[in-house]
């Protein structure tokens, strides 16, 4: 993950990372836990350019998926891009299944703060993650 983070920083200098969340594997249970985080950045690059960069990083890091829904050495997705809705053969934003994945929603909530969302995800985020005044 550190190498991936370094590669992302070279492309997106102001990138911010959530904490890393460890969760039990989904769909196929006989595999190691997942490690997930979410990033946020400002960029002048188009969603398609960002997608191309992410695919290049996956290729450079030798992404492998041994079987459908199996473990991945790396998996980079665009969850949101401002309030855009994109649906092409190669890119769908917002990510179509993120609202069903707590391992996505929790780190996304961590980074989203008080952001106002213009699409249906806001309701899901509000219901899934409630910030408190508690501190450790």
Short description:
The chain has 136 residues and is an alpha+beta fold. The protein is 32% helix and 10% strand.
List strands and helices in order, with pairings.
Elements: H1 2-11, E1 16-17, E2 21-23, E3 34-36, E4 39-40, H2 47-60, E5 86-87, E6 92-93, H3 102-112, H4 121-128
Antiparallel strand pairs: 1-4, 2-3, 5-6
What percent of the residues sit in helical stretches (DSSP H or I)?
A: 25-40%
Q: Could you tell me the mean pLDDT? A: 82
Please give the CATH class: Alpha Beta
Instruction: Domain count, please report it.
Output: 1
- In N-to-C order, the SSE pattern is HEEEEHEEHH
Radius of gyration: 15 Å
Helical stretch tally: 4
The end-to-end span amounts to 26 Å
CATH topology: Alpha-Beta Plaits
CATH architecture descriptor text: 2-Layer Sandwich
Describe the global form: globular
Secondary structure: number of strands: 6
Annotated CATH homologous superfamily: 7,8-Dihydro-6-hydroxymethylpterin-pyrophosphokinase HPPK
Strand order of the largest sheet: 1-4
- Strand % is 5-15%
Which structural class is indicated by helix and strand composition? Answer: alpha+beta
Low-confidence spans: pLDDT under 50, at least 5 residues?
Answer: none
Biggest sheet record: 2 strands, antiparallel
